[in-house]
Amino acid sequence: MTKTRKESFLIITLHYIIAAVLGWASWRLCNGAMHPYLALFVADAVATIYIWALGLVYRNVSFYDPYWSVAPPVMLTAWAVHMGHLGLAGALVLVAVWYWGIRLTWNWAVTFKGLAYEDWRYTKYRTECSPWLFHVINFFGLNMVPTIVVFLAMLPAFELLFRTPIAGVSKFSLLGFAVSVAAATIQLVADRQSHRFRREHPGEVCAVGLWKHGRHPNYFGEISMWWGVWIASIPAVGIASWYIVGPISVTILFCTVSIPLMERRQLKNKPAYAEYRRHTRLFI
Predict the structure, then answer these.
(1) b/e burial code for range 235-267 (CB count within 10 A of at least 16 → b)
(2) Confidence of residue 167 (pLDDT cuts 50, 70, 90)
């Protein structure tokens, strides 16, 4: 379906509002009948399935792209409202997540061309896989797995907000807040440097600013963001607990899927990337 950029924004905004309403309704239905975190996940999954279905309608998997950065601040805020309290430790995490979410969503909006365009990663799967395999990859790999990974990364923050009267501000709260804000700022700087370089030097390898010191500073920032959330939540979840699976999952996702895909694309399209790769670290 060919839509202008403005029309596409309106369509996506409308359907994301509907997805939020569906998620809220699912939460209201499930809360009390199951563990609160499981009810939260059901709400998250229902919203994801709705967005996935819209991706099928518009034949564009990129319909899901803003979900990664929109869902966490909305869900954490809704959880804080449900708890009815927000201590300083919880507020710091909430501020960090909103800062990260706004920045990442803004970056998506700036680069968004409209529903007539689909991210190259999704087009790759669509063209290289059989129809049935593409739909399996689309539902699980491109929609549900990212939702699950980010949900796991949010769990420490859910627990912190749940226990916030007990978990006062500590050195972990301050350190985690600093790490998350610094990580989102690294992403901001890296993306701006990349956008500017690509405008001025199309087709060349970006090796300026943060990109001079690491091949994927934006991914480094994304991974560090969720480690910061976990660090800030240590007063509530403890160091030796299963909640660490959240930031570990994010790290695995980027190191085994996102980064290898980008590396192969860069090596294929830019001959100079091989030399850049030999002399530049993976992260900063």
Answers:
(1) bbbeeeeebbbbbbbbbebbeeebbeebeeebe
(2) low
**Residue type for 119, please?**
D
Enumerate the β-bridge partners of residue 31.
34
In the structure encoding, which two tokens stand for residue 145, read together? 């797995």
142 membership: H or E segment, kind and range: none
Whether the CB-CB separation of 245 and 153 falls below 8 Å is answered with: no
- Give the list of residues 6+ apart from residue 12 with CB closer than 8 angstroms, or none: 63, 66, 115
pLDDT at 263: 95
Contact between residue 235 and residue 168 where contact means Cβ atoms under 8 Å apart: yes
Secondary structure letter of residue 137 according to DSSP: I
Cα Rg of the chain (Å, integer): 19
Query: Is a pLDDT exceeding 80 seen at residue 1?
Result: no
Local structure of residue 212 (DSSP, 8 states): G
Task: State how far the Cα of 24 lies from the Cα of 260, in Å rounded to an integer.
Answer: 36
Give the C-alpha separation, 269 to 265, whole Å.
Answer: 6
* Amino acid code (one letter) for 75: M
pLDDT at 168 over 70: no
- Report d(CA 273, CA 183) in Å as an integer: 25
Sequence-distant (6+) residues with CB within 8 A of 178 are 228
One-character DSSP codes across 11-38: HHHHHHHHHHHHHHHHHHHHBTTB-HHH
The one-letter code for the residue type at 92 is L
Q: Report the SS3 class of residue 190.
A: helix
